[in-house]
Amino acid sequence: AKSVGRGTFRFFEPEMDAQLQARRMLEVDLRKALANGEFELFYQPQVDIRRKAITGYEALLRWRHPERGIVSPAEFIPVAEDIGLISPLGEWVVHEACREASGWPAPLKVAVNLSPVQFRNRNLVQCVKQALEESGLCPSRLELEITESVLLQDNDTTLATLHQLRKLGLRIAMDDFGTGYSSLSYLRSFPFDKIKIDQSFVQGLSSRADCLAIVQSIAGLGASLGMSTVAEGVETEDQLVQLRAAGCTEAQGYYFGRPRPARDLTHSLEDFGPV
Ligand code: C2E
Ligand code: CA
Ligand code: CA
Ligand code: CA
């Protein structure tokens, strides 16, 4: 009888060890990755639905792990946030995105994702300012994407930081809109320039009436508040047609093109795919 407890323990122990060990290895590799130049930004086009023209690109981080190949940001960003690496990594992202975008024809924009954790760093505004100055990118061509969780950790400093960033002349977009808890009150607390409609609503368009109703409401809300609305995760022509009818101003997704390295961008929609 005494062996049951121990037997159970022994059964789980190696597995837990393996998980912990994998996590430790990821942490060790991640700490070296920045210095080793293993990160790269991919860019996915955002398209003006009426004009059918590229307005800019969202920068999406990729990690070329020497043994594992490309690792998804969904896997390593939470770890980078945990171990205090997101600030230096995020600084690299802002600098790299501004530097690369400064070589694109104006007025093409670049959108950069910011982690909520970066807002706890006092140097965030200074870092963005420096990236703009060093690259010479016109601030109106930089957009920062934040999620509602940034405002969740709210205190006055978060809002003050957002206002300081805005004062630099750049734009602020709310990402993954509709997935949080009280999106509408957040829209009141800060004047966003853009709302990104979460891809879960876009992907439900063909099969679910509620998704269409939600997309229409968000597009209408954006229009009346003077914010542009971007639909994320657009994969089919049918979705695009519905989004246009709903009044969305921009679209982004595999239908127009997957994220690509900067060197592969031609800034022509035809080179990306249909439309
Ligand atoms: P996100 O900001 O919501 O980015 C959109 C994600 O949807 C990207 O995944 C993109 O590749 C994917 N996507 C685009 N079009 C489609 C489509 O038509 N269908 C489908 N199924 N997916 C599509 P990705 O690149 O794996 O990035 C995942 C998340 O990682 C991002 O979600 C963002 O939260 C985070 N992330 C990426 N780069 C950065 C970064 O530089 N900094 C920070 N803090 N987070 C980042
Ligand atoms: Ca985003
Ligand atoms: Ca998103
Ligand atoms: Ca997301």
TrEMBL record:
This is EAL domain-containing protein. Residues 23-273 form the EAL domain. It comes from Microvirga thermotolerans.
